[in-house]
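Q: Here's a chain of 120 amino acids. Please give me its 3D structure as tokens.
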Amino acid sequence: VQLQASGGGSVQAGGSLRLSCAASGGTFSRYNMGWFRQAPGKERAFVALNQWTGGRTYADSVKGRFTISRDNAKNTVYLQMNSLKPEDTAVYYCAAGRMGGLSVTTYGYWGQGTLVTVSS
């Protein structure tokens, strides 16, 4: 499975961005899809999960602000980010895994990352 993330950019606090992750080379509809982020000097951290069964899970830090969704017809997963804060600044990665969960180790496929910068 190959993953291509896009949609990052620079935005002021309170603004919105939508990240996209296009998948190819696998049965997208049967993969759990996750978004993670890595801030400078920190480990990669879980942001959101969209299970292939439809279930969704969010990190506490983004609940109520971020929404993960997927379009199986387009082999794409999205992350809508609203009310952005400076602490959301990071490189965002999408990931695919048949048993993907909250840990980076549960994903076998990763996108290249897209940078999100939120200024105050």
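Q: Can you summarize the key feature?
A: The longest strand covers residues 17-24.
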